[in-house]
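User: Before I run my own analysis I want an independent prediction to cross-check against. Here's the chain; please return only the structure tokens and, at the end, one sentence I can use as a sanity check.
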Amino acid sequence: MLEKIRDGSQGLIAKGILVLVILSFAFAGVSSYLGSTTDVPAAEVNGDIITKAELEQAYQSERSRMEQQLGEMFAALSADEKYLQSIKQSVLERLVADKLIDQAAKAMGLRVSDEQIIAAVKTEPAFQTDGKFDNDRYQAILRQLGYQPQAFRDMMRVDMTRRQLTAALVGTEFVLAGEAKQLAELQGQTRDVRYLVVDSAPFLATAVVTDEQVKNYYDANQGQFMSPEMVSLEYVELNAADFAKNNPVSDEEAQAYYEEHKAQYVSNEKRLAAHILVMPGSDEAAAKAKAEDLAKQLDSGADFADLAKANSDDTLSAEQGGKLDWFEPGVMDPAFDAALFALNKGQHSAVVKTDFGFHIIKLLDVQPGVTVPFADVKAKIVAQLQDKKAVDQFYSLQSKLADTSYEVPDTLSETAKAVGVDIKTTPLFSRDNVPAALNKPDLVKAAFSETVMLKGLNSEVIELEPNHVVVVRVKEHHDAGTLALAEVKANIAERLKQDQANEAARAKAQELMAQVKAGATDLGLVAKAKLGRGAQDVDAAIVGKAFQMPTPSTSPVVDTVGLANGYAVVALDKVNAAEGVSDELVNALKQRLNAQYSEADYRGLIDSLKANAKVLYPVEE
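Assistant: Structure tokens:
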């Protein structure tokens, strides 16, 4: 709602709780002012309706937020209709939660007075000018957002009432200093360990798997062998880049273009500059005075080069009498540039201030701009004209592509003839392995859409890149299903062999563990002192196991843990207390725990309200 309301609840708690409560309100709540509808509602909460319009507004708001947050990643994710449907469902559940909170607040008699709303509006920075409430600004912002003042105040009343309940719930949570400190000490713990990896690879050679074992595994685990939905496409493609090589440009055309645009082929004037630089140091006024004195000496006939050698703080140019280099317009500091290009040859400027200090600039020479010969730019002009012809041809054919593919929607043959290209095809692919040339979110979405995949019609024109479009239609469609045993037999056999090898490695690890417990010291265990939870040089499974094991007493604690390809024996020798637990860390953990507890409270409240409510999700017949 108001920026201040959002700002006032920033931080870990807001992200976990209040965003869920407030985020959709401005988009969903407004529809209650737009009139009633006889459509089947999206949901009913104890008789209160959530309309489909409310749901759609909140859903579009959430989509916009995710697009801003995820960028191109969201474009790829949104090609999957199931993903978008899951977002819509989560938005609906959030609206249901809002209804439950509103009803609970009403039942408790919570209310917000007109005075509180007025105070919230007047203290909102978005409605202020120079720190004071500006009614004109307030009205202008409401008009821009499409709200009437009374409707906006009513929305604020509901929002602020809702926050009374949620804020009271969140505000009751607290974290003891001891809790946070204990957690910090646990997280900062290190452990002295020894470990030995038993690789399963040596045991693979002796692993034997029968056809019966493969069949039994297949029958018991068919859910692992689901094939995704797949399509192959026919498509007609137009790419302006392909047309350029087929659009020859004559010498006469290139020459005519050169003559018509000759002003584009004039090189910039260049100026040879010299300067005397006085850097300000700690006394800017003294530096300016020195520069002005040098300018007066030049006005009186002093030699510029001599003064530069004796006084310029730019030591490199000073040795050359202040000489710098040839400059085109726009290269130097704007003030330096303006002064240089205002001089006549041999003149010097007045004192010019830049970020570097105080300059006196002299124009040593001028190199006028010259027209670049046609021969030097001919190739560039030809390429430009080819591209222009290609783009003109592309747009002409794109119109035919759109019209013909729409008018004859059940084939691409007529479309291909109309634009003079061949129909291309793809192999079968799923959403996860789209051919690279076509792997664009809009195309994937179209390929698996009802129009293309199920109805067998041509898609709309899809832009892959600027001046590069396609129209697609389904060639072949395979529903998701279970792969045949023959297709997965080899993979299952390899998996079962790996399981056998892992089991053999486990048995070996158990044997070694017994030896370690018995005090064996010649097994070659790798020692790691002060192992931390975030160690990168030790297998994560070994690290996890080390921190699950109890503190050893008189002898090491020894256990085994499974790895990706084998097992490991882990011996825990010592638990080291955390070093240097700072107050900042403890405070940060207190905030994090408070946010977690508060979110759990909020979700518990919603679950409790929902368990005692009548929530319906009507379905259209």
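Sanity check: The radius of gyration is 38 Å.
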